[in-house]
Design a protein that fits this description.
- The protein is an alpha/beta fold.
- 39% of the residues lie in helices and 16% in strands.
- The protein has 19 helices and 16 strands.
Length: 474
């Protein structure tokens, strides 16, 4: 039975530290428990997630020191980090009548989702996560919502043909690639030329030092969270654990997954604004003037068309930290394609490698939302770095991460042989959890993975349904 690799954790953490300008890390303050593995996968997901989280803890502690705190010991465990990669699955609602509906994978909601074989014996993954996407995918394939019919319809196309047709229709799907195929493709080559977290200065403004004598690293930091599903909301949830005030902004007409809303809603207020209406856009601009962070996860160009791209937001609020999260990266031929966790695994070789190890050579997804949650942790790390730079040097910053770049980063940490794993026990999970009173009744949930010895890391606001509050920071 294998343990998480401390060496791989150190390699990943050193790469992240280099992005922050640190040549060395004071490892004596990091108390990382490399424990038995939980996830059945050859990927070093535990080490990657742990490094992203501990990296964020290191920057948060530097901010805390600037606010007058003593240096902290930083604690994290690999099994808690692994559990966090499926944190929605570890929510336990005491009142089943009030609880959000259990999560269903796209394959359980429609026949037009999952892996399918094409005319040239390639595999594609079709992602029809919401009802409208499923209807549009069935219309594209000209087939009823029946498994056999969809399978036959996909067989009429080569993998590349169907991938292109899906992309042209603005839908979500991709052809399964080997790692080598992705790495040698134009999109893969361009993405590999960028770090796993980009922090780019996009404007000038005076320094904004953190005031001293505050209890938590991000007390007084206002975050606008305009993201959906898992990766983006996880970023803002992570910032909330360090004390940020977070307002999640969504629109009533957009579909959501209530279980994910609950999972990623800790530490947040939640309001509706329709940015296509003048009053909604006006209110958002007012909020931006009081914000420190603007985080969005829509496809490239969508926010620009509404006047809320990085440069537009920086004009409204000099000194803003603007965060962009997407699937395939922010430059190149795939930058405007929509995508989700499953598609990042599909294109980067992860699904092929996982299938070779655990599914007799047929593509298979990892047993956790590995790129989603880890990308959220990396986005939070980049945001903390940008806030620290703004405090010292001033400036507006653009933080960029993507699910696919995260997948390649995890893959490049190396693969481990198939090994026996140790499932999480109820006793273990109980030690990782705490309780909250919510609109869905009492719920037990995972605590933040990282703890700091000299400051509190926790969520002080329970999750709420979307649109619960007025659009304000409180």
């Amino acid at each position: 039975m294998k343990r998480a690799s401390r060496k791989s954790f150190n390699v990943a953490l050193a790469e992240l530290a280099a992005l922050s300008g640190l040549a060395t890390i004071d490892s004596s303050r990091i108390k990382f428990a490399a424990q038995h593995l939980n996830l059945d996968s050859p990927f070093r997901a535990a080490e990657a997630a742990s490094a992203a989280l501990v990296g964020g803890g290191l920057v948060a502690d530097r901010i805390a020191q600037a606010r007058g705190h003593r240096p902290s010991q930083i604690f994290a465990s690999s099994r808690h980090a692994e559990a966090s990669l499926s944190s929605f699955a570890h929510l336990h609602f005491a009142d089943r009548d009030k609880a959000p509906q259990a999560r269903q994978a796209p394959e359980q909601r429609t026949a037009a989702a999952g892996f399918f074989q094409t005319a040239d014996d390639r595999w594609v993954y079709l992602h029809s996560g919401f009802p409208q996407q499923a209807a549009d995918m069935l219309r594209l394939l000209d087939t009823p919502n029946e498994s056999a019919a969809v399978t036959a319809a996909v067989r009429h196309y080569t993998g590349a043909e169907l991938e292109d047709r899906v992309a042209e229709a603005g839908l979500c799907g991709a052809m399964v690639r080997t790692a080598r195929e992705w790495d040698s493709s134009p999109a893969g080559l361009l993405l590999a030329s960028r770090p796993v977290v980009e922090v780019i200065q996009i404007g000038e403004s005076p320094p904004e030092p953190f005031p001293e004598d505050f209890a938590r690293p991000l007390t007084g930091t206002n975050v606008l969270d305009l993201t959906r599903v898992l990766a983006g909301p996880t970023c803002a949830r992570t910032l909330a654990a360090y004390g940020a005030t977070v307002l999640r902004v969504s629109a009533e007409h957009l579909p959501s997954i209530p279980l994910f809303v609950a999972d990623t809603g800790f530490g947040k207020r939640a309001a509706y604004l329709d940015l296509h209406e003048r009053t909604g856009a006006y209110r958002l601009r007012e909020l931006i003037r009081d914000a420190d962070v603007f985080s969005q996860g829509y496809r490239t160009g969508a926010m620009d068309r509404l006047g809320f791209g990085p440069l537009g937001v920086a004009r409204v609020r000099a000194g803003i930290v603007y965060v962009s999260i997407n699937c395939y990266g922010h430059e190149g031929p795939w930058r405007t394609r929509p995508g989700w966790e499953q598609l990042a695994q599909t294109v980067t070789g992860m699904a092929k490698i996982q299938g070779d190890a655990y599914n007799a050579g047929q593509p298979k997804l990892l047993p956790a939302a590995v790129t989603d949650y880890t990308t959220g942790y990396l986005a939070a790390y980049g945001t903390l770095l940008a806030l620290q730079r703004r405090a010292e040097y001033g400036g507006s910053y653009w933080v960029r991460v993507s699910l696919s770049r995260t997948g390649v980063w995890i893959r490049n940490l190396g693969l481990r042989p198939v090994t026996e794993t140790k499932p999480l026990s109820e006793v273990e999970l109980a030690a990782m959890k705490t309780d909250a009173s919510t609109s869905w009744g009492p719920v037990s949930h995972l605590k933040p993975v990282v703890t700091l010895s000299e400051t509190n890391v926790a969520w002080h606001q329970p999750p709420v349904p979307l649109g619960t509050h007025e659009a304000s920071f409180g």
